[in-house]
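With this grant's support, the team has encoded backbone shapes as discrete tokens. A representative record is reproduced below.
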Amino acid sequence: MSKVSSSVPKSIDKGCPRDASWTPAAVRDKHVAVSVTEEQVRGIFDRYDANKDGRLTKEEVKDAFACLGSRMPRVRALLARKHADDNRDGYINGAEVEKLVKYTLERGYLFK
């Protein structure tokens, strides 16, 4: 049986065999993921409005979703534009941005 680290909590049976490199989750997992806020999402979309014209193109929306950590930002951007682009002009602007932000929040993105 291997020697158990002194960091084992008292409530854990120290006689239980485990890898010598075992550490409690609280020590091992130092980074915690947190949900993004509405202001953060809005800020990301504002930052990716490359020419600052108040309209988001499909490429700008794709880049914003890539920043948020989407596994498939092109697909997510397509679905988001279908959801938010009410007038079907190919751009997200004005009140459509609010729909895009709400859509994004519903997806549950996390910052790690």
User: Anything to note?
Assistant: The helical segments are 25-28, 38-47, 58-68, 73-84, 95-106. The longest strand covers residues 34-35. Residues 82 and 88 are 8 Å apart (CA to CA).
